[in-house]
Amino acid sequence: MAAACILASVGCSVGADEEPQPVSGVPKAIVATVDRLERAIAAHDYETVCRDLFTAGARKRAGGSECAAQLSSAGADVKRPQIEIRGIDVKGSRATVKVATEAEGQALVTDTLVLRRERGRWLVEALG
What we know:
Elements: H1 25-42, H2 46-53, H3 56-61, H4 67-75, E1 82-91, E2 94-102, E3 109-118, E4 121-127
Antiparallel strand pairs: 1-2, 2-3, 3-4
C-alpha cells in the first residue's frame, strides 16, 4: 500500500535516445491509467483509486470496502509524490510498468506496477 501513496506526475516516452517519440496505442492507454492514478493520489482521492482504477483483486487486497480509508491512512503523511515511468512491458491483457517514485522527505524507490486489461480498460492489479 505504501507504494500507492507515492505515485504522482507521469513522464513517459518510447523511442530513440536522441529525441523521445510520443507514446501511442496500448502504452498510451497504460500511461493514461498511471496518470489518473497519480492525480487521484496527489489529490488524496482514494475513492477514485479504489472504485475506478483498481481491479477487484487489488481493491480486496487494499481493504475491500475499507480500501479508500486504508489508502488514506497509509498516504496521510505523503507530500509532493512523483513518479517516473521507466518502462512498459505488455503481454496480452497484462502489463508491467517499471517506475521510480519519490516523495518529499523520502528516498527514490524503484518498483513495478502490474496492470490488467478489464472491460476495455487498463486497471491496477498490484502495486510493487
